Amino acid sequence: MSKTDSSPAAPDAPAAPGAPATMWQIAHRPRWIAALILALVIAGSFAALGQWQLSRSLEGGEITEQQSETVVPLESVATPQEPLASVTTGQTVALTAEFVPGDYVVLAERRNTAGLGYWVVGHGREPSGASIAIALGWAESRDAAASAIAQLEASPPSSTITGRLLPTESPQQSDFEAGTRSALAVSELVNLWPNVDAGIYGGYVVSFDTPAGLEAIDSPPPSTEVSLNLLNVFYAVEWIVFAGFAVFLWYRLVRDVWEAEREEQQPDAAVD
After folding, report:
1. What does the pLDDT look like over 139-193, one tens digit per residue?
2. For the chain, where are the E strands, in sequence order?
3. pTM here?
């Protein structure tokens, strides 16, 4: 007696006449293969955007400590009348500038290692005529700052300056109603210094050399620690979800066609 062949049909075998097509057979139709390719391209684009957002979620110092502690000429990293680039923040620079007599400024409420006190800021003028604000040192009291300025007027500091370049501060930090000037704001210094016709740098330098009567201003290297930006992580996850949805949408459309064809080919229910 011959045995009836009961081996299952291949998955991609054509459906028997009158039998509904399987989902696998529908997915092999040219239009749905093209739709799958399109879905994969879209999903790949979304995945790439997610990877880009994830890479941006790790934020750290844009310059390393080794770079920031390498002394470079001021003019190589900054230009008068232009804002400082973020990568130059905290850079150690060297410059040559004469201090303009009578243009020293005292800033209050400046924190140092010893607590709150006063900064003495000088008006440096480069040989080109460009101006730069130079924070020379910290004093515990206003009288001590005034005394240091008197010494600076009598014996100006060296014209060769090495220090850390920092961006300008906002003048809104000062309490003008109380008569307190605490921000080292370049926009404010322009109105205090009578002659800045050759331009002024958009930041200031904290001098490493401290004049007599003042203490060194605490100016550590810029932080290079890496922090996690949760908003970018959320966007990265969002793009990955979109990528998965593109493929799921293709699957859902194929399934809808399969269900529709199966319902059309099912025989009508017998009527009692």
Report:
1. 999 999 999 999 999 998 889 999 999 999 988 766 655 567 889 999 999 989 9
2. 58-59, 72-73, 92-96, 98-99, 105-112, 115-125, 131-139, 160-167, 200-207, 227-228
3. 0.60
